[in-house]
Fold these 3 entries.
Entry 1:
Amino acid sequence: MQATPDERTWGMIAHLSALVGAIVPFAGSILAPLIVWRTRGERSTFVAGQAKEALNFNITVAIAALVCSALIWALVGILLLVVLGLYWLVMTVTAALRASEGIDYRYPFALRLVA
């Protein structure tokens, strides 16, 4: 079944809402997709799926950021944080673009914690 324009927009918002994490680290990138999922997910399986996917990806990135932060003392953590940040940004924008096209996007590396 094709996603409606409204569903595609909310799917895109579910992914882009994680960019709030650039302002409020960790909590923003996790809470924003969670809010989209809880408020719009009951109306559309497409939106619910995209919001859960964004939530899972951002939880995974938060865990990875904590690990990278712990490795700062080994001097490799700073480089890993930069790479992780770029990866997060590129994947978030890619997912938003795919959702706006009505494609059910799955991040290549994400723990599926929220089912």
Entry 2:
Amino acid sequence: MTNLVALSATEDRRWKAAKLTRPFDASARHLVDPTAKARYKAVSSRTGVPWYVIAVIHMRECPTLRDGSPSFDHSLAQGDRWNQKSIHVPAGRGPFKSWEDCAVDALVNCAPYAARWKDWSIGGILTILEQYNGLGYANRGIASPYIWSGTDQYVRGKYVADGRFDPNAVDQQLGCAGLLMAMAVLDREVVFGATPANDNTATATTTNKPVVVAHPTAAPPPSITHPAPGSLGAWVASALAALFRKAA
């Protein structure tokens, strides 16, 4: 079993030493684009996962469009279309009503249950991201290309299929760490170690439906027993209360 505390410390050391070896700017700009960012924030408010973490998962898991941006037609969980039942792991999810509902399901109801994660330091972020892809690289004691591709922390080695590791294969996608570095330069809201603005953190459960985190409970609607302040009903209730007090 992988020691996640040790992995987090290792990822933190790699982060401090890492240098980019490929350009990340263009991809990072897609992830901090106001329209995309608003969608990531909508999912963050329902799961407690920082929006920029959701953004880099989106870039890694989903097909990219001609302009290089990740497709919102595909699932954050495994890249399948969210309006159909998924066939890749996690299989059998959906269909969903929206990309956002599908993303919430992926973060709340599917391993590694990112909505349960509490450590949003950079070491913690990279650790949950590595779990999202699988701990095969950590178990081999090597840097995961899912995290480090495009930096000097990764050279070669890749799982080219489930359980099949090719030591000479090179991951062509950009890794999460470099994307986060580039996003932090472009957007001052990318602050590692920060708590998401919405404190309504989802509780992960195993279902086939997305969990929607409730907003703070609102006041009950006016009724005969709870009239609205300043209303005629409130005046009548006050008069009756005074009458009963005199009778007592």
Entry 3:
Amino acid sequence: MIRIFAPILLAWAAALPLHAADRTPQVHLAGDSTMANYPAENPLRGWGMALGRHFVDPAMVHNDAISGRSTKSFIERGDWGKLLAALQPGDFVIIQFGHNDEKVDKPMTGTDVATVFPDNLRRMVRDVRSKQAVPLLATPVARRKFDRDGKLVPTHGAYPDASRAVAGELDVPLLDLERATSAWLQREGVEASQQYFAGFTSVGQPPVSPSAPDNTHFIDLGAQRVAELAVMEIRALKLPLVRWLK
């Protein structure tokens, strides 16, 4: 069930400094490669690159997501500190991690889903709120993985549920992108879903090579669709941010 946060966030807005109420809020993105920016020559596109198209001023969106990052490495390598330094009262921060936190075999990246991962999310929420800004948690986007019967297979283990639990515990708006993107990919099906991901030549055709299919990262069409789903989540929650959507 989608929870509506308008009363809570309207009360928050009323408590902002007067100058903050007059400025256009900025939307900062913290996440991994599925959200990150890529250079023009790279066919990959993170959904954060497409999000600005949905706002009255695309420059409102600041994509601070970085490929390969987990909650642990995003904090420890200083990326989180840089994002916090740029925050002003009234800004929003969308936090989406899980893809790399899952890599528990890599101690510099992976996090325990029962302890470190939720603790890092709690820290991020507290840090954003300390800046009089609004944190939004997002579950990780689904991978394109189907079983023999054409049913999408979840690949993120308990990490989406950990994000949901922290959102409920701390009363944080949740963009449930894992559920939204899973439903979308299931509707598209095994073949049609290829058109949104890297490494496929055309729908229904074999990939360029056995190692070429990339069922995690999007091309522009996929990034656009995920950004649309994120905006649908924002609208459904009736967040104050809706005011700046097209």
